[in-house]
Design a protein that fits this description.
- With 474 residues, this protein is mainly alpha-helical.
- The protein has a two-stranded antiparallel sheet with strand order 1-4.
- Strand 2 and strand 3 form a beta hairpin.
- Helix 7 packs parallel to helix 21 and helix 8 packs across helix 20.
């Protein structure tokens, strides 16, 4: 294990293993959610193909991070980016699945180019230190918010009057509405899981987050099946064996090879460049590539900085080691993911869960990557970990990450406002990239209007201009 330099990074072998398992379990949902977003309902050939592509791309991207960058970060098809791929590029813009993959491949190759020449590192260095510090706190709020919402079955719910509200806990006795009972029950499981993790962490029990996830899953299945018949019926309906075709495991690779592998080159080239399509839609295609590029870049940058800060990998200037290698891994994974058949691959914010357990090196990522490889053959079992079981882990990690707020400079208002905008816009706009974008925009405006020109770099000006163009043109 000398390749991971455990002693130099003050890491322990078994802690790294535990951290890798924790990260995988926390983000395992992506292997079923991603194909559902891109391909629709389970059962179709495209769903099966995207499932295989998602697992392979996550395995490859996370393995690259482990071996090239030696960092405890995991990669997979990014949430938000997959929705943009499916609903905007394929939906509103009308591009075929192969053509959309080719666009992602082009953006991935662009990532590789700008990473090799050092542009991405220049971008990171151009982000003001206070904004970098706010990124960690913002990501903490963001992932805690994801856990609290938990796909509509969390503690925080939609509210027509106030946009967001608290789940109506009295619904647990509403036998006439099984869906309401299930939603409230899931919220209660989240609370139980969070308390369990908190207590275990307080007594320094190894693997507190992983044990909390296991306890939450047990509470969901056993509690849901035995509280009453109405709730049990809904919970039984969520059993993986009820909606997963076990027979597809033996044939899924053949389906994937026929439907997704390399179609960005075969059918994608024809769909994107044939019949004058490319020139007719040149502006749209360029804007889509820029959108993929900017969102992925700043999602990745934000996640790397925020998570590295939690792992004490950030130096006094706000920079992290092996950043170029991490960005290169991300770039290669995006291009390779498109060839495999999935949307943009990016560094996952759920990596924070493994870091919070104690993951410090690429060994954590190696274990996580192997988890995605195993998932190819154990897909039905993944569903046994419900969202309400992993939600407490996200909330708890968010609590740990927001502690970086104490390091923010609030004395200088031209630094305080951009930091505040960064950390609040991430959860409120559901985007790490948006938080960074508006943090930089407000930083630049405040510095110019207060004549603090020495605090501004040329790269920051260019970034702000690009963000403004993106927001104006959509």
């Amino acid at each position: 294990m000398s390749i991971f330099k455990l002693k130099e990074n003050k890491a322990r072998f078994f802690t790294e293993i535990l951290a890798g398992i924790t990260t995988f379990i926390t983000m395992a949902y992506i292997v079923v959610v991603n194909p559902s977003i891109i391909a629709g309902a389970p059962g179709s050939d495209l769903y099966t193909s995207v499932f295989v592509a998602t697992c392979l791309a996550a395995f490859l991207g996370t393995l690259l991070t482990a071996l090239i960058a030696n960092l405890p970060f995991a990669q997979a098809s990014g949430m938000g980016l997959n929705a943009f791929f499916a609903f905007t590029v394929m939906g509103a813009n009308g591009y075929s699945y192969p053509a959309a993959l080719l666009i992602v491949f082009i953006s991935g190759m662009l990532f590789i180019l700008i990473t090799v020449v050092g542009l991405r590192e220049a971008v990171i260095k151009a982000i003001p230190k206070n904004v970098k510090t706010a990124i960690s706190a913002g990501i903490g709020l963001f992932i805690a918010f994801i856990g609290l919402v938990n796909s509509g079955s969390g503690i925080v719910v939609n509210d027509e009057s106030t946009l967001l509200g608290l789940v109506d806990f009295s619904g647990i006795t509403d036998v006439a509405n099984p869906a309401t009972m299930h939603s409230v029950f899931s919220a209660l499981v989240i609370i139980v899981g969070l308390v369990v993790i908190g207590v275990l962490h307080r007594f320094k029990v190894p693997g507190a987050i992983l044990l909390g996830i296991a306890a939450s899953a047990c509470a969901y299945w056993f509690g849901g099946l035995y509280i009453n018949d109405t709730l049990a019926e809904v919970v039984r309906g969520n059993l993986p064996g009820n909606n997963v075709d076990w027979s597809t495991i033996g044939t899924q690779f053949g389906t994937w090879a026929k439907t997704s592998l390399g179609v960005c080159f075969t059918q994608g080239v024809q769909d994107l460049f044939g019949n004058g399509t490319f020139m007719d839609n040149l502006f749209t295609i360029v804007m889509v590539i820029i959108s993929f590029s900017m969102v992925d870049m700043f999602d990745t940058v934000g996640t790397l900085i925020g998570t590295a800060q939690k792992a004490n990998m950030i130096d006094e200037k706000g920079n992290m080691p092996r950043m170029k290698e991490a960005l290169l891994s991300d770039s290669i994974a995006t291009a390779a993911g498109a060839v495999l058949g999935t949307s943009t691959v990016t560094t996952f914010v759920e990596s924070s869960a493994g870091v919070s357990v104690g993951g410090r090196t690429g060994l954590t990522s190696l274990v996580t990557s192997l988890g995605f490889l195993v998932a190819l053959f154990l897909s039905p079992f993944i569903g046994y970990i419900p969202g309400c079981a992993t939600a407490p882990a996200l909330i708890f990690v968010g609590i740990l990450m927001i502690s970086s707020v104490k390091d923010l400079d609030f004395d200088d208002i031209t630094e305080a406002i951009p930091a505040f905008v960064t950390l609040t816009f991430m959860p409120l706009t559901y985007s790490i990239a948006n938080g960074i974008a508006f943090g930089l925009i407000t930083h630049l405006l405040l510095k110019v209007l207060t004549f603090k020109f020495k605090d501004i770099s040329i790269v920051e000006i260019i970034l702000v201009a690009l963000f403004i163009v993106k927001f104006v043109l959509g």
